[in-house]
Amino acid sequence: MDANRTVHHTKTDIMMDDRRMRSAEILIVDDLPENLNLLRKALEGRDFRLSLATNGEEALEIVALAPPDLILLDVMMPGIDGFETCRRLKKLKAGREIPVIFITAKDDLPHLKQGFQAGGVDYVVKPIITDELMVRIDTHLRNHFLKRDLADANAELEATNNELAQKNAELEQEMTKRRRAEDHLEVADEQLSLVHSKEAERWGITQFIGNSRTLEKILKEIERLHKTDTTSVLINGESGTGKELVARAIHYGGDRSSKPFIAVNCAAIPHDLAESLFFGHVKGSFSGAHRDQKGYFVLADGGTLFLDEVGEMPLPLQAKLLRVLEDGSFLPVGSTRETKVDVRVLAATNVDFPQKISQKLFREDLYYRLAGYTVEVPPLRERKEDIPLLAEHFLRIFAAEMSRPILELSADAVAELKAYEFPGNVRELKSVMERAMIECDDTIVQPRHLRLRRERTQTPPPTTGAKLITAEEIAAELPLNLETAKTLLIQRALKETNGNLSKAAKLLGIHRNMIYRHMAQTEEKED
């Protein structure tokens, strides 16, 4: 049966080869009409497709536009002869692989050698014998098609190899991701279930700093949540307001305090690994899954799972999270057996959930399930009476860490802090106090030690009756020397942007390189 199939394929290949031979296109190049007619009549009986040219230049144009399968080329022609035509033809990409058979009246060895050196594959001596010509044409056409098939097969093989190499690279990347996920979960299994005592002290898990009414309200809500252990909580607030601190206070003040507290930043998790990270996987469930692996929900079993930036959770994961919240069960990736857990979910966000829901980026049913109880954490600008207490708290912490005496805040520094809006909230205040501790060489922090982002604050409106300065008056104050005026404007822009070159350039409406060049030229003149 195999032998018959082989014979059948061989016959089919021969039929296809004969069909291609008959449909081959041949270009005849000769300056004499009688020679063109003779060759045309000889070849028309074989159903070849023919093109005719009367000189070398015309032949090169035809090849560039529509390359034939073979060329019959006369040697002796006016203009460029056959040898030169062949040499130019072989320089063309389209003509490089076309077999050229010379038609020549000379049969001497130097003449034939010159033809082969020019790039020809054969020659036919005039007067032409039709049968001999056909045998040579058939031989070279068959070789030409075989070479073309071989080149196509090699190209296809190369493309296949490239595709396989790409797939291998993608597979290797996937396996690397999976290994990282497993390593990440191992670290979480060993470390994330415990809160370091120094971290608890640093972030005030057991106590909050401040005496504002808004803070008192939050503390009462936290105490209320200590008594309702199973309720999911959504913590709303701007970035840096202390949402994780609220979540930890809820956890460590309740019955789950001796169990793990697992904090997960949903925005930092790769979408393709999210399901495995949250719910775990079994060995062999995908490439690189060399062993069973626990997910965040199993790691937090009995304790609390804190989902920071929950609004960035991928949509496919949201449906599975909803089921866990409803009945505490889920399927690890690749498993057919359900896993049951007892986990309290606390979620934090700084996004507009109604907008997310309207844009179909967050499930409405999951939102209502997460928001069993909502805690609003106010921005620092709405509890300014707490700023001095928080600032002093951070100074004590940094003094202990840097083995330095505890610094005091001057009245002017307190006024400066309370006048600032703190767009980065408590996190920004902490950063400001850390830098103040480093820069202050005295025992009292002064306003000059506070690196506040003043460009973020609003400029107070002019007082009633104040004279408005016009553009003409400003221009009149500038010196008439253009270079000096440039220097003054650049210095003013740098002062208003606290030395930030990019912002100064933007303020001036120029590229920062212009500031560099002007400063360099000014320094050269001074030198």
User: In terms of per-residue confidence, which ranges show pLDDT below 50 for 5 or more consecutive residues?
Assistant: 1-16, 187-206, 455-469
Major sheet strand order: 2-1-3-4-5
Shape: elongated
- CATH domain class of the largest domain: Alpha Beta
The CATH superfamily of the largest domain is P-loop containing nucleotide triphosphate hydrolases
Radius of gyration: 42 Å
Average pLDDT score: 80
Strand content range: 5-15%
Count of helical stretches: 21
Query: Would you give the CATH topology of the largest domain?
Result: Rossmann fold
Largest sheet: 5 strands, parallel
Oligomer status: single chain
CATH architecture field of the largest domain:
3-Layer(aba) Sandwich
Distance between the termini: 96 Å
Helix fraction?
Answer: 40-55%
Q: How many structural domains in the coordinates?
A: 4
User: What structural class do helix, strand and pairing data support?
Assistant: alpha/beta
The strand count comes to: 14
